[in-house]
Design brief:
Largest sheet: 7 strands, mixed
Shape: elongated
Number of helices: 11
Strand order of the largest sheet: 1-5-6-10-9-8-7
Number of strands: 10
Strand content: 15-25%
Bound molecules: adenosine-5'-[phenylalaninyl-phosphate]
Structural class: alpha+beta
Length: 356
């Protein structure tokens, strides 16, 4: 259309072609291109007509100039009307539409094992226990020797314990030839704490421990424990039982009963397994407690004098008790979870069932 030579009909034809094309454009970029085709400084319809003024015979120069101006003003007027109509302020495809309802962010929540650990911490903290932590990569002296488990003790066997290929030196306070392992229980921290503090001691030690156990319904090679240790003058087995009974009643139900079953740990004497009455059947026997009426929670006992000797405490003067409870075990029982593996699979359908 730019080849129409300047005359009154050509002005009208250009203007209506411009209007028709403008009605069809689909983006601001297309509209701009169309405008430039008519009004651009170079190679546009109007610029082409202006150029013809120079080459035209003198008597036509004026008329061509007038027509070019008329065309320019007509196109400009329509362009101005178009831009002022708001048609150009289209939204880019990826723009945020602030008028849409908001997308609610998914709230995170604490893991059921975290909830169980925090609940245990809270109950013992209220009883006056301090919360202490220790290293997961531990040396064999703190994990075994000092706990009255000599070199030939079966727990030190490669079957049970995960040893690091290279020992971590310098942190043992002992012989640097000691092997480093992933601690098999939180009892190692008892030793570290007693080495650094004099009695009275009243601590709990929550933490992760590692064993060469297979993953099954109730076992995992990595799991959590909450250790407890109380040392002072005149501490008795009755204190141990009272403490764990108070804990169990807070954790599970106000009518929960506890019982001690004779057991063996090299670092406690006497030693016991702590059972709590099944709160689903209240001791009459059900699937949860395997018809026994009782559920095992962990090990405990009175601190062995050999342990006090290892840390330099006077075993004649002080007595104490200790325990180690499995965190997964507590969570399984509290929430009636059928399979420990559910805790590790991160399936939101499972995790979202727990109150946070
Ligand atoms: C101990 O680890 C002792 N150190 C506890 C102790 C501390 C006794 C202080 C006396 C004084 P045991 O190996 O039984 O004991 O483990 C304690 C608890 O950890 C078990 O009752 C169980 O709840 C949990 N547990 C043990 N092995 C696993 C495992 N593979 N997966 C999940 N939980 C486990």
């Amino acid at each position: 259309m730019s080849d129409l030579s300047p005359n009154q009909d050509a002005v009208a034809a250009h203007v209506s072609a411009f209007e028709a094309a403008l009605a069809q454009v689909k983006s601001s970029r297309e509209a701009q291109t169309l405008r430039d085709h008519y009004l651009g400084r170079k190679n546009s319809v109007v610029a082409g007509w202006m150029q013809q003024i120079g080459a035209a015979p003198p008597d036509q120069k004026r008329e061509i100039g007038r027509l070019a101006n008329e065309l320019k003003q007509a196109i400009e007027a329509r362009w101005t009307a178009y831009t002022e109509s708001g048609a150009l302020t289209e939204r880019p495809a990826d723009a945020i539409d602030v008028t849409l309802p908001g997308r609610a962010p998914r709230l995170g929540r604490r893991h059921p094992l975290t909830l169980a650990r925090e609940r245990m911490e809270e109950i013992f903290a209220r009883m006056g226990f301090a919360i202490v932590e220790g290293p997961e990569a531990e040396d064999e002296w703190h994990c075994f020797d000092a706990l009255n488990m000599p070199a030939e003790h079966p727990a030190r066997d490669m079957q049970d314990t995960l040893y690091l290929a290279e020992p971590i030196k310098g942190d043992t306070g002992k012989d640097d030839d000691l092997r480093t392992l992933l601690r098999t229980h939180t009892s190692a921290v008892q030793i570290r704490y007693m080495q650094a503090h004099t009695p009275p001691v009243r601590i709990i030690v929550p933490g992760r421990v590692y064993r060469r156990d297979d993953l099954d319904l109730t076992h995992s090679p990595a799991f959590g424990q909450v250790e407890g240790l109380v040392v002072g003058e005149g501490i008795t087995l009755a204190d141990l039982k009272g403490t764990l009974l108070a804990f169990a009643r807070e954790m599970f139900s106000p009518t929960t009963r506890v019982r001690f079953r004779a057991s063996f740990f090299p670092y406690t004497e006497p030693s016991a397994e702590l059972d709590v009455s099944c709160w689903q059947c209240d001791g009459t026997g059900c699937g949860m407690c395997k018809k026994t009426g009782w559920i095992e929670l962990g090990g405990c006992g009175m601190v062995h004098p050999a342990v006090f000797e290892a840390v330099g405490y006077d075993a004649e003067k002080y007595t104490g008790f200790a325990w180690g409870l499995g965190i997964e075990r507590v969570a399984i029982l509290r929430h009636q979870v059928s399979d420990i593996r559910l805790f590790y699979e991160n399936d939101l359908r499972f995790l979202e069932q727990f109150p946070y």
